[in-house]
Automatic annotation (TrEMBL):
The keyword Nucleotide-binding applies. PANTHER family: HELICASE MJ1565-RELATED. This is ATP-binding protein. SUPFAM superfamilies: P-loop containing nucleoside triphosphate hydrolases (SSF52540). Residues 7-70 form the Helicase HerA central domain. The lineage of its organism: Bacteria, Pseudomonadati, Pseudomonadota, Alphaproteobacteria, Acetobacterales. It comes from Gluconacetobacter liquefaciens.
Amino acid sequence: MTVSITIGDIRGGGPAVMDLAELLSTRLLVQGNSGSGKSHLLRRLLEQSATLVQQAIIDPEGDFVSLAERFGHLVIDGSAHTEAELQAAGERMRVHRASVVLNLEGADAEVQMRRAAAFLGGMFEVGREYWYPVLVVVDEAQLFAPAAAGEVTDEARRASLGAMTNLMCRGRKRGLAGVIATQRLAKLAKNVAAEASNFLMGRTFLDIDMMRAADLLGMERRQAESFRDLERGYFVALGPALYRRPVPVRIGEVVTESRSAGPTLLPMAPAAPPEDIRDLILARLPERESLPRPVRPSAPPPPDILAQLAAHAASAAVEAEMEAPVVETPADKAEQKRRFLTILTEILRDEDAGFRPPPVLYQDFLVRCRIEGMGREALDMPRFRRLLATARAGVDAETAESDRWMQAERIAAPLPDDVRGIFLLIARAAMEGQPCPSDAAVARVYGTHSLGRARRQLTYLEEQNVIVLRMDGMGRRSAAVIGPGWETAPSDPSDGA
């Protein structure tokens, strides 16, 4: 049975079709430099075949999670699950014939390799009765099947390379049809690339990659330079599922969007006054917090009695002439803290401010303090971090002076700076009996877009014995602060995500 899908059109006219049934038996390799349109090609292939065959996508950059909204793919956050859980997920997705996107965004290279190897291993080891056809798409395949050892451990590299080799070499009998995409053929392990029988070669500039692409397509060496002239979205197609001879094709439009669109030119913002620019760019780096060490100068030899009397008389005269020191009252400190919180609240109203590192926010804070007439060194960096955590929790100046909030800050004091704001966010909600903050709210306070990373910080707070998390029968989460006994109302963790 022949089932064809349209991936675009042939240069010169006519639709460019791909035999999906043949693809499931012969596998596909996509190659092209960054910006050539590889991800667009994979998205077109996935969209056209989503209703025809089960799909599994290894997504290192989170580009394909948008398929879930249109086609119902299950998105699995790879960084939020253990390798054993992902292996079980790989088995179960084949048993239940569910299309899955394994999102590895935010994880480092070694974690991505281990998680992908576990998931592919589960798909590969499922029982024979579940060997249904699955289109397995691996974007940036050179990350999971590198041609040479890199900075990751040998154990992680062997596991990932072994899983990719099984997919491309032994996967056909188990119903696994590998579709791998890479920026450079030279970086992809040869035994993985060699198993593909279908090719879509995009724009390439390096000589070694152009030569390998020409060899795979059966083109003459002098024709290799033609890959430099390909426009974005154009690929040379060859293989039993495509065409018997190299044919340039233009990939068609897609209906879903990628979250990682390329850079676009924007008009320059109005130039700031030269004084502000100088303060922002050449501001003194904040000093690291360190414990003060007492200075122990060597004691000079004791002077005679006459010299001691003279020195005492001189010091007494100086002290009499000095003005009385200015004593800062508690009311002054409270007012200063209120002004600091007001400035920080204004800064955090910017949607992107939550994702800026504290040193960048600190420089902005100092400039605004100078504008308010509070001096160049209004607040040191350690105190700024503590006040930033309070501002990110959404606490106003009146609440910040309450006894209950002081108790919350004492509990948060031993915590690292980056998770202190998460604890205070939960503590504020618990004090006021509000719903438990969602994963998206926690991620924003932590300064990340990854919901999995935010959930790991909640687990860390539990391990530090400062909060307790509970899930009810409806999947709603509540949090209690250990010690005071404050507890939030239950809420759906995915609200606002």
